[in-house]
Amino acid sequence: MANEIAAERFVIFRQYYDELVKFLTVKLRSRDQALDVAQETFLRVLAQGSSVPIDRPRAFLYKTAINLTVDLFRRRQRRVEQSLDTDDIQTVLVAPPEQETVVAAKEQIRLLYEALMELPPRCRHVFLLHKFKERSHAEIAEQLGISISMVEKHILKATAFCRERFKDIS
What we know:
The protein is mainly α.
C-alpha cells in the first residue's frame, strides 16, 4: 500500500515538475534554488505519509513549495540579521576614511586633469569619449568625422602621455 501511494505521488510530482520549477525559478530568481525547493517539495509530499489520496495534487504541490520558499526566505533573513552586528555597523558608518588615501586620490585626479589639459584638444576629446563615455572607436570616428585609425592613434597617444606622467607616482 505504501509503495502504491509513493508511486502515485511520484506520478503527480512528475506531471507538474517542469511547471513547478519554472514557477519557483521566477519566485526565487535562481534555477538552482528552484530545483532544490522542488526536490524538497517532493520529499515533503512523500514524507507526508497519509494513505488518503490527494484531491487537488497541483494545488497541494504548489502550497508545499510556497511554504518551503517562505521558510527559505526566513532562514536567509535570520542569517543576514545574525551576521550584522550593530557594533560592526556603527563602526563602518562612523569610521572616517583614511585621510592619506583621500589626499592621494585627490592628487592623482589633479595630476590626471593637468595631463589631459596638456593634450591637443582633438586628442583629449577622443580619449575622454573613449575612457569616460565608453564609446567605441567606430562611434567616436563617426561622431567626429575621422577615421577609426585616427581614433586609435589619438587614444594611444593620450594613454602613453598619461602613463609617462604617472610612472613616477606609482
